[in-house]
């Protein structure tokens, strides 16, 4: 008998059979939800996620196969067993080919049904204990009650069992690193390091050394050997965030490491074997980047063995109250404030917001409300002010990069006194490229020569 008490949704318009099936499965140790139509089953699946669906084939309204098609399209990892009083072998074969897990004829043998259920649940996180890790432990930091997220977590749990490379897609603030860490925690590598690096946050000339390491004397300032992140993650998982921003020349070297399972530190003639599982993430459309020449197609196929796309917060609004209360508890304790919650009007404002910064933005808004609150209940005025300030401060990645680039160019020109050749050397760019950057930001080097005088 399963000790994790998986939940099974059974669907049949025959009330007597539904009750009999419920009694048998409950006696076998399963949690059971029973509904009398496919339409009711879909309503249930909008708000909850069982580990298995058992459905009758012939029902008034939507039949069992139509229900399966809907489930398979929206929750592809949720197994479905079909029961039918009019089954034939060709029907069973056709159903299984379309993805139905099991197809049993009525009257069914209880032992056969329970064997099918047990087999189906072996492939589902939460169905039986997996890798000695409970469902609650590996996903404990992911707060959700969304059916979309539950299906995504099921897929994450399945992919965690192997070593296939995973590519996580999602906008900024949706929790890509959180998902990567959850996959690591659910895997056999969980007792070894989880190492993360943001490929967009480190200058190109340093990123190679950070990833692969360097030996003493490899370049100016390399006074000792330095282990790269591949070596530090030995036996564990390396998370490459914003992989779409990795320079093309470095992509070639990363591809070689993935193919050979060896790293060659900068300045070394010796390659070092590594055993690392790669999870990467991006907010970019990598297929578009490949078409534009900004990302290597061969590296893409190495990284995108399994793809997971995390929905934006506006697509999982049912999680907003859950996340809000979680952050409320966390920050109330942090700032030692006795706050009971958000007023209904304030919660309505949170539920209806667009959340361009996703979960990270929601967390910042809740924290700001906690810090500024002087009452036990957070008001809509406080929420409005926090959200308005957040929107003012939040700029796009492109705007932030342009602002940084212009400020950097101004500083280099000031240091060099407007000498373009010297400024280009300081920036480690050739003169032609440097002139193009100056033209892009309409910067006149002669102005900086005059300021020196």
TrEMBL record:
KW Transferase (keyword) present: no
On this chain, the residues bearing 4-aspartylphosphate are 56
SMART domains per the record?
AAA, REC
The UniProt record lists the Sigma-54 factor interaction domain at 142-371
Q: Which UniProt keywords apply?
A: ATP-binding, DNA-binding, Nucleotide-binding, Phosphoprotein, Transcription, Transcription regulation, Two-component regulatory system
Do you know which PANTHER family this protein is assigned to? TRANSCRIPTIONAL REGULATORY PROTEIN, TRANSCRIPTIONAL REGULATORY PROTEIN GLRR
- Name-wise, this protein is Two component, sigma54 specific, transcriptional regulator, Fis family
Q: What is the lineage of its organism?
A: Bacteria, Pseudomonadati, Pseudomonadota, Betaproteobacteria, Nitrosomonadales
